[in-house]
Amino acid sequence: MDAQIRRELRMLKGYALVVTVLFGTISLTAFRQSTQKQRFTEIDVERINVVEKNGNLRMVIANRERSIGPIYKGKPFGYAGGSRPGIIFFNDEGTENGGLTFTGQRNPDGTFRASSGFSFDQFNQDQVLYLQYNDDNGRRNMGLTVADRADLDIYDLVAERDSIRRAHPEGPARTAALQKWAEPRNGVPLFAQRVYVGRDASKAAIVNLSDRNGKTRIRLMVDSLGTPSLEFLDATGRVTSRLPDAK
Amino acid sequence: MDNDTARELRRVRAVLLTSATLLGVITLAAFRQSSQKQRFTEIDVERINVIEKDGKLRLTISNAARLPDPILGGKSYPLRGGTGAGSAGLIFFNDEGNESGGLAYAGRQTATGHRANGHLTFDQFDQDETIALSYSDVEGRRRMGLSIADRANVPIQPFAESALVIMRLPDGPEKTRRLQQLRDSPVGEGGKSMMRVFVGRTPERSALVQLSDPTGRPRVRLTVDSLGAAALEFLDAAGRPTHRYPGAR
Predict the structure, then answer these.
(1) What residue ranges do the domains of chain B occupy?
(2) Cβ distance of A43 and B49 shorter than 8 Å
(3) CA-to-CA distance for A156 and A185, rounded, in angstroms?
(4) Whether B53 and A65 lie within 8 Å, measured CB to CB
(5) Is the pLDDT at A161 greater than 80, yes or no?
(6) Fewer Cβ within 10 Å of end Cβ, chain A: N or C?
(7) Among B45, B125, B232, whose Cβ lies nearest the Cβ of A135?
């Protein structure tokens, strides 16, 4: 082999080595980078999962299509995702415990539907504190609600309901079974509204305080005609006292 | 060519082939990465756009400089004002890509004191805010509470369009007059907000629950004022108290 070729080969070998080491370094950096702190000016994304170190979901920020369905201890249950654009929160055990969602669209026939809500769930249950706007083509309510929920696990309740749906085809038997399922357990209702402050669908501005069965017992109201009143009610919904006094 | 040279050449070829493959993999990974799921421990960012597949905005999370202007029918209306101006935070958009609320915070020293604001708002469809949980503070004059308002049953966009033209005028009596004229016009209806419920603490330092009629006039008021006086008052449409409890003794 002549000296010239030998020199060329050495150079090529050197070049190949340098290039390979360089690529190796870049690859390593590229893969490591993704787990390091990074800085962006602006990013477009369809979903962000905020996770604990072990991968448990803590918060999901998503568009409609990628929005997450209910999750109980890391497992999906209830219904599929895709209907709740916004932010869903999870507790330390990976169970959903609140959300901030917003939707609204006009239908082809010109009517519209919109809803926005910010909610906090009772532990292993459903929402007990929520700020909500619901609008069905102009029939709307917006307000703050505080509610009691039974001390029952939402996962078990949903499983019970789903097994009723599986056992009975649509019809009176299913309706009866579902009604029974929704009844109070040991005298405690599954859901009882305790406080409502807002504007209801009848266009009244209202503050309702209710008992543990969800029956309104005090109602401060300015109705759609502008008439103000403060009413006290008994457990059957009968008004027992009313202000202002008739003169 | 002798055997030695041939062997050396084979080796060089192998090394170069490896590096070329590596380059290909990296390039592919780089392009795929941008549209696939990625994991970060921590990111610093000036603005995040959560978008629908078709590119429509759903949510922005941003610093103050990059906070988007209100968007209606795909058009931006630079009309944000009040103590909320200069806020950073989240802006929500509905399925049509129109702004439908926000969660934003602001606060800064000024020449005369400070201005601060924090609020969570939900907008009526094609309109402006109907629910607001807010704190606003101008030089220590604070108001914090939950407000619920009726908005007009017409879209706000025509009003915003007119307001945009007027807001571009220089400040002065002409601008003020034109704004008032707009508010009094039929188009002005679209920009109206009729407060129905307020539960909170007022700039006068009263704790207050106030319910109003559909035109926004307070008709019942539960108050503990800054001096600690408690009262329940009913008012007529002209704002005159008609009943007050507890009664005088």
Answers:
(1) 1-39, 47-123+151-191
(2) yes
(3) 14
(4) yes
(5) yes
(6) C
(7) B125
